[in-house]
Design a protein that fits this description.
This protein is 56% helix and 12% strand. The chain is of the alpha+beta class.
């Protein structure tokens, strides 16, 4: 397997965490880039731009990340995550469990979508309200969903939702203090994150992975 992305965590990191949890060896290919302006998110990514211009990325429509498996290319980060989780047994033990785990992941995606809609307004007071009021409410709703519907767990094996929740609550946001405060009443979510943090294989990956700007 070859996972192709930029030398950042971003959209590629959940797949890397899944591969770490599975103990799978793979080629972690990273396009390098230089920061031009972090405020406007401008980067110099010459190698990627050249490969895209020369048609080397047609199978992924010029987008990253993508996963190469036995000569085939799987693009779109969520498709990659679901494929890897299914392949390595991180989607529960039956179709119903798999669907529930997938639905929990989509709930996280809904929260992210709401965050980006707020963030894109560049309204700091409104963003503060989102962290102080909206996010805690949404996390409490997610916690309630898990308590009502059940947490799909396998002994010593994290599932896709648990990995995605860890990535969301630990690595997704820059404002670590606000995200920590927002989840303080969600004991179940905190326990899931703690379980992932102490997972031997994932902890080993976090320790050895390249140190990146983002």
């Amino acid at each position: 397997m070859k996972l192709v992305y930029f030398n950042v965590k971003g959209l590629g990191e959940p797949a890397r965490l899944i591969l770490a949890a599975a103990g799978e060896e793979y080629d972690d290919f990273r396009y390098q880039f230089d920061v031009v302006d972090l405020v406007t998110y401008k980067f110099n990514k010459e190698a990627f731009d050249n490969d895209k211009k020369n048609g080397k990325l047609k199978k992924s429509m010029g987008r990253l990340p993508f996963l190469e498996v036995d000569g085939k290319v799987i693009c779109q980060s969520k498709a990659i995550e679901r494929y890897l989780a299914s392949k390595f047994g991180l989607m529960g033990s039956n179709s119903e469990d798999s669907a529930i785990i997938d639905s929990y992941c989509e709930s996280i995606r809904d929260i992210k979508t709401h965050y980006f809609a707020t963030k894109n307004l560049f309204d700091k007071p409104k963003l503060k309200i989102w962290f102080d009021e909206t996010l805690p409410q949404k996390l409490e709703e997610l916690e309630s969903l898990l308590n009502e519907n059940g947490v799909i767990t396998e002994e010593n094996t994290p599932n896709l939702f648990e990995i995605k929740l860890y990535h969301f609550l630990v690595e997704f946001f820059d404002d670590k203090e606000s995200i920590k405060k927002a989840q303080q009443t969600c004991k179940l979510l905190q326990q899931i994150v703690s379980n992932i943090t102490t997972n031997t294989k994932i902890a080993a990956w976090i320790e050895k992975r390249p140190k990146t700007l983002m």
